[in-house]
Amino acid sequence: MAAYTKQDVLDALLDPVLYKINIIFDTVVINGMGFGFVRSQIAAGNIEVVQGSSSANAYYNTGDDTLTTQDGPSPAPYWKKSLLIHECVHAMFDLYKYTTTGLTNELLCYITQVAYEIMSDARYKYSLDSSLAAGSNDAKWNKFWVDIETYVRGLGYDYTTNGGVVIVKDDAAFKGLRTQINGLNIYQHLTNTTNYSSDGICHQVYKTPWGTNVRLETSCP
Ligand SMILES: [Zn+2]
User: Which of 81, 85, 89, 112 is such that its CA lies 20 to 30 A from the CA of 43?
Assistant: First the structure.
């Protein structure tokens, strides 16, 4: 298998299920319009899609406006698309210059990812796996997936959801999940005091006089 391409990301962003998501948090809205904006930036090449080498992880880099994809079969099944969509929420915040802490930024991406997955498949259901060694990374991830699913269903998302506005509050449940994220192996560097820099999309593709395209760093509009 190869890593997902720009076209795979563009295709994931057209999944109609995505357009049932309408999450308000603080001063930001995660919705179809935002996914449309991100899609245009990717289509234009201003946000560059880079094919990564990991089977499990994808990344969005706010500094160089690149989305690095994970491996998987194409066309992507929804659970693979969900990770690309997670990264596109990071990109949406960057585009909006919505700056919040690293942990809050991450949690909002997971909430969106899981809402999309719950609405994509009636069978989506995580259960606690008691065979995992207590305190292990696998056990922590398993508990996180169970808890965030419960939380997102509690917001009103299920397989039959048609849409509607969901307000996410910075309340005890949200803070609890944020703490859980901080305990996960790949997120221990994040804090709830240091901000993620969302500086805008600071690259743009230009056509040269001789007709080829070049992606240059710009001031961030
Ligand atoms: Zn993330």
Answer: 112
